[in-house]
Specification:
Length: about 240
């Protein structure tokens, strides 16, 4: 996934398009200041002025590509089944990684939490929204944070594993099995078939608490603390 170079584009747009193409064609090793300068028809100082260094350039290119992907993902209307929407989101995430392996590897590089790539931050925000809808429906059996972390860890790990496999020997069922294992671990059945236990009830109430005006700010804060303790890990 990369934009086409055009003489009418700004230097920043040409640099990002050139970086994306080099990344897609040759991986991270193919992206150098000299190669990007030549492909984008700009001087090296322009790259440093706009992006700081090579890592900044790679992060910007990854963010650009991932933003285009997220725009297609967030443009979809949510269905009445938030768990099914999570399945769709998982499949789209894995599909994006397999279609853009070099870009996905840049996004998935281990970093301190304070230095997470912008693309990864954007993806986490979309996931948090999906998880929150499941909590509001009373179908989340763990806290929203724990559910999001598990989906992130499993989804990223599955995608990286599939990327590492030769295309001809990839097992598409691996993603389906991982997805369903995670969904089973974090969600309950439909409320009609499986009434939520205390953890699910606490998570659901925590999700919709901002919608109530019956409590003072102090009372809401205290109730959030109690609900978090119920939904959190046992000690």
């Amino acid at each position: 996934m990369h934009a086409r170079l055009s003489p009418e584009d700004s230097p920043r747009e040409r640099i990002l398009a050139a970086t994306a193409k080099l990344l897609a064609d040759g991986g991270r090793e193919a992206v150098s200041t000299r190669a990007v300068s030549a492909a984008a028809d700009v001087q090296a100082p322009t790259i440093y002025r706009l992006f700081g260094d090579k890592q900044g350039l790679l992060d910007a290119a990854a963010a650009e590509g991932f933003t285009a992907y997220l725009n297609t993902k967030t443009a979809r209307e949510p269905t009445d089944d938030p768990v099914e929407d999570l399945r769709t989101g998982w499949d789209m995430h894995v599909g994006f990684g397999l279609a853009n392996p070099a870009l996905y590897l840049v996004m998935s590089e281990p970093r301190p939490a304070t230095e997470a790539p912008p693309a990864a931050v954007a993806g986490a925000e979309v996931l948090a929204t999906l998880i929150h809808r499941i909590a509001e429906a009373g179908r989340l059996r763990v806290s929203e944070d724990r559910a999001a972390h598990l989906v992130q860890a499993a989804g990223r790990g599955t995608t990286l594993m599939l990327i590492s496999m030769p295309e001809g020997s990839r097992d598409p069922e691996l993603s389906v099995m991982a997805r369903e294992a995670v969904i089973t671990a974090i969600t309950t059945g439909t409320p009609e078939l499986a009434p939520p236990g205390p953890v699910s009830a606490a998570v659901a109430l925590r999700a919709v608490l901002p919608q109530t005006s019956a409590l003072t700010d102090r009372e809401q804060a205290l109730l959030r603390e109690w609900l978090d303790r119920i939904a959190g890990p046992a000690h």
